[in-house]
Amino acid sequence: MTGGQIRDNKGYAGGVLNNGTFNMTGGEIKNCETGGSGVIYASNATVHIGGNAKITNSKSGNGGAFYVKNDTRLTIDGNAVIEGNEGSRNGGAIYACVGSSEKDKPSSVEIGGSAKISGNKASGTYSYGGAVYAENAAITMTGGTIENNGAQNGGNELFLTCLLYTSDAAD
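The structure corresponding to this sequence follows.
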């Protein structure tokens, strides 16, 4: 997606359902809503949000803008803006997790360039991670700004949790 708008949509993904590659370098996704997870829902995928792309004022259950799972790589860079989104459970902007199968692999979120993630909120009674909620997922930040996000219970900017850790390393 290099321009245009996806707006005012309601549905399972609300904006984009991706099991492959999605590259957004311009345009805007705004005012979309899903009762499920993420206006951009990605599983076993590659998602790049860069250039002057914007994802604004969207609502979801987990991950107001993004729900990424099962070996998905989400990269937000350039001058991308992720702003004013709401997750009614966890992750006002981003919810990243492994998935539900034992064979699923962790997802990763990379934030860089001059990307801005601000004004997002996890609004539910027991919600965490105003900007990012990461459950067994890798978060890398090499640039950009995460600011002025909020969550009801904790992690106004980031909430990181690891439910299970295993290693092949020898003791």
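The CA atoms of residues 115 and 170 lie 39 Å apart.
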